[in-house]
Amino acid sequence: MADPKGFLTTPREEWPRRPVEERARDWDEVYVPGGLLPIISEQADRCMDCGVPFCHEACPLGNLIPEWNDLVSREDWRAAAERLHATNNFPEFTGRLCPAPCEAGCVLAINQPAVTIKNVECAIADKAWEEGFAQPAPPDRLSGRTVAVIGSGPTGLAAAQQLTRAGHTVAVYERDDRIGGLMRYGIPEFKMEKHHLERRVEQMRAEGTRFRTSTTVGQDVDAAELRSRYDAVVIATGATAWRELPVPGRELAGIHQAMEYLPLANRVCEGDLGRSPLSAEGRHVVIVGGGDTGADCLGTAVRERAASVTQLDIYRKPGAERDEENEPWPTYPKLYRLSAAHEEAGALRTAPQADADARLFAASTLRFEGDERGRVRGLHLVEVDAGRRPVPGTERTLPADMVLLALGFSGPDQGDGMIAQLGLELEPRGTIARGPDFATNMPDVFAAGDAARGQSLIVWAIAEGRAVAAAVDQYLTGGTSRLPAPIGPYDRPMTV
């Protein structure tokens, strides 16, 4: 604890964002380049070294937060990077994309703004790359055992890196043409520039991990045949089966799933396309769904110069302060949060009929209406109460010639045939069933991440990848694994 009075004398200060008018014209990350380093040491000083760090409990990775806060405060970046990477394979991903449940569990957050843990994490990760601390760590010797990892999202990459470093020969199979899964084609460039992902992939290649892109297991490669070629298989395909909105007019042209829309915008940034076939330019866009995916669609539509963009959230507008009775500390509270995309939409007034940040709260879609050509032209909605029951007399129509559905995901996609070919059992909700050792009903096939847990956060995905790697390593060696297992398959976030 470098400054025992830091939390009393230093106010919370976050990584500043670039001006809205500037960042809405490009796809670069929204934050001021280099804006963290001038403030981060003092922000790390705010850590209380509280003795019982609930931030550890709130983070499924078990990040050693007070330790690397102290090291950053002293500007010992090498030691901070070592402590951070001891529990997290990809801190530059979580430092940009995680909603930071650790900050909700910060003891300081009981009655003051929490320590900016997420910003400190990101600063350490970026400094590690800048100073050359993130070197490849290939194994000293090979075990002679082979593992196939299906899926290259955060779970698959974390599992692959851990198993490679343990000495196993690992091949990652990815159905897209580039590695990264949701981080590659689901997360917009303005939230995380893809060079962060490329660096990690190159690090893993240098360590010995092999990558097989443009390969859909179940179609391009028979899953049962793949299983016979490897000593173990890890399924980390994510929860890619999107939820539908079964209301009248859903069949109209111009209504798309978020994950049909976002990948095309990312491909424009990758240079694959000059213009997205589903560009929002000049269109009146309505986004159905109030979560992070909806906000990603919002920021993307703003950059594509939509005529208007409105986001519908079925939940009532949350308050600015924690509800101590229903969401007591240290649980993660549902608060009114202003993402970069909402800040942009509010400043640019993209949704005249909505609140200041483009969201309409407590709004439920009734039906869509179209024109004589079968294209969507309007969305009928109604206000709902806390029980999601329609409020009489609140119906209205929004102009919409493009609708994006961002309603979440229910489990792994079964259309590729992989699950059937492997003969895997499923849970009633559609996720892959597994036991306490992450193994499926096929003992050499393991399941991890959203494919088995269900839709979750990136920090849980990485924790799942690290934990399943320990389980696979133990299975392959027939003894105890030296790899860390931060969570079990049945662990869940802290709730009331």
What is the topological layout?
Elements: H1 6-9, H2 20-23, H3 37-45, H4 54-58, H5 65-73, H6 77-85, H7 91-97, H8 101-104, H9 117-131, E1 146-150, H10 154-165, E2 169-173, H11 182-185, H12 195-207, E3 210-212, H13 223-229, E4 232-235, E5 241-242, E6 255-257, H14 258-270, E7 284-288, H15 292-303, E8 308-313, H16 340-347, E9 359-361, E10 363-370, E11 376-383, E12 396-399, E13 402-405, E14 409-411, H17 418-422, E15 445-447, H18 450-453, H19 458-477
Parallel strand pairs: 1-2, 1-4, 2-3, 4-15, 6-13, 7-8, 7-13, 8-9
Antiparallel strand pairs: 5-14, 10-11, 11-12
Helix pairs in contact: 3-5, 3-9, 5-6, 5-9, 6-9, 7-9, 10-19, 14-15, 15-16
Organism: Streptomyces cellulosae
Keywords: Amino-acid biosynthesis, Glutamate biosynthesis, Oxidoreductase
Protein name: Glutamate synthase subunit beta
Q: Can you put this structure into words, describing what you see?
A:
The longest helix is centred in the last third of the chain and has 20 residues, at 458-477. The protein has helices at 6-9, 20-23, 37-45, 54-58, 65-73, 77-85, 91-97, 101-104, 117-131, 154-165, 182-185, 195-207, 223-229, 258-270, 292-303, 340-347, 418-422, 450-453, 458-477, and strands at 146-150, 169-173, 210-212, 232-235, 241-242, 255-257, 284-288, 308-313, 359-361, 363-370, 376-383, 396-399, 402-405, 409-411, 445-447. It is globular, with a radius of gyration of 23 Å. The chain contains 19 helices and 15 strands. With 496 residues, it is α/β, with parallel strands linked by helices. The protein starts with 5 loop residues before the first helix and ends in a 19-residue tail after the last helix. Pathway: Amino-acid biosynthesis. Keywords: Amino-acid biosynthesis, Glutamate biosynthesis, Oxidoreductase.
